[in-house]
Amino acid sequence: MIPEIATAVQTASTLISLTKEAKKIADSLKQAELKAMLADIISAAANVKLELADANEEIVRLKQRNAELEAFEDISKIIEITSGSTILKEDYRGIKAGTYLCPACYSAKKILVPVARDVSHAAKCPHCGSSAR
Ligand SMILES: [Zn+2]
To answer: What does the CA dihedral 61, 62, 68, 70 come to, rounded to 10 degrees?
Structure first.
């Protein structure tokens, strides 16, 4: 369960318990206790509202991340990884097919960073600085 939602559920349970207690007190007509209990109920309800707002933000963030991961899957179909080299198989967003990419950036950050390649030397990635082959 998403932590913010778990906290909201826990607080909602507390809210229900407080409301049940308030009803018992209301039945026995103890006004001072009833007022204190109502203040606790209002406070708990306010917390539920804040926790749900936090949970909503988290869900929006996760949906965005999910969309990024789905986009990454599409990119993975046009990448060829052979003996340590990461090569673009088709033209993609201005990067020509056959371009060597930084394998570290591709696997860790899911981004395509072209690296200049010399036949005899490994190139340094301009983004992360690792040696790309
Ligand atoms: Zn890199």
So the answer is: -160
Q: Does pTM surpass 0.90? A: no
Domain with 42 in it: 3-74
Distance of CA 112 from the midpoint of ligand 1 (Å) = 8
Residues 47 and 84 in one domain: no
Q: How confident is the model at residue 88 (pLDDT cuts 50, 70, 90)?
A: very high
The Cβ-side half-sphere exposure at 18, using a 13 Å CA radius, reads 19
**Ligand 1 mean position, distance from CA 37 (Å):** 59
CA of 54 to the centre of ligand 1 (A): 34
Average pLDDT in the 5-13 region?
85
Q: How many A from CA of 104 to the centre of ligand 1?
A: 5
Are 13 and 63 found together in one domain? yes
Question: In the prediction, which pLDDT does 20 show?
Answer: 87
Question: Are residue 66 and residue 108 in the same domain, yes or no?
Answer: no
Which of 35, 55, 74 is a domain's end point?
A: 74
**Ligand 1 centroid to residue 66 C-alpha, Å:** 23
Radius of gyration of the chain (CA): 28
